[in-house]
Amino acid sequence: MRLRSIALASALAVPAAIGLFPGVHPFAPHEAVAGVSVLLSLDELTAVSTHVVLARAVDRTSAWEELGGGRRIVTYTRLRVERSVVGAAATELVVRTLGGAVDGIGQSVSGEAQLTLGSRSLLFLAQGEGALVVTGMAQGHYPVVELEKEPPRLGPSPDSGMLLPRRGPTVSAREELLGATLDAAIAAVARARKAHDARR
Q1: Which domain holds residue 30?
Q2: The domain that contains 6 carries what CATH number?
Q3: Long-range contacts of 26-29 (CB under 8 A, 24+ apart)
Q4: Is pTM, for the whole model, over 0.85?
Q5: Which in 30, 54, 91, 130 has the greatest CB count within 10 A?
Q6: pLDDT tens for each residue of 142-164
Q7: How many independent structural domains does the chain possess?
């Protein structure tokens, strides 16, 4: 399989790709070693997410699509929802991620969420261009780590790309959620969303 790595700046991140790669449109496919984005806070993730769910990836399919001004491979993953934390309750959702493999050609997008079939994750989702996408790419994907005789905890998405530190006192969602128990993480998300809704 031919494998091409492409980087895309998150629509929610400061478009660092513009500064680091002058003359390159941030949504155009290009050779790169990592996606670049600014660390998002839990408040930011929950504020722009239409859904936050605990779900298991049960099926997926990849295809070529015209997206963001270019032709690229995308993957649609069907999620079986175990618990809805934010958004309307649903039993299943379909989410689109960048990258995948079609007819022996593969595209890998550093910094994108990588949803493994059979795995459970806490996922922040938002409405993208014609489909649900993972909010903040890998920053909105937290696989559940099952530990023997311990409560399940949240782990990192397999490839987070290059994450730039935040400015100011607010900690990132990764700092707040990685290693947290699933119950504590869900409670933190619910508090963040309640605080956001109260400010509206």
Answers
A1: 2-199
A2: 2.40.50.120
A3: 27/68, 27/69, 27/70, 28/68, 28/69, 28/70, 29/4, 29/70, 29/72, 29/107
A4: no
A5: 54
A6: 999 998 899 999 999 999 888 88
A7: 1
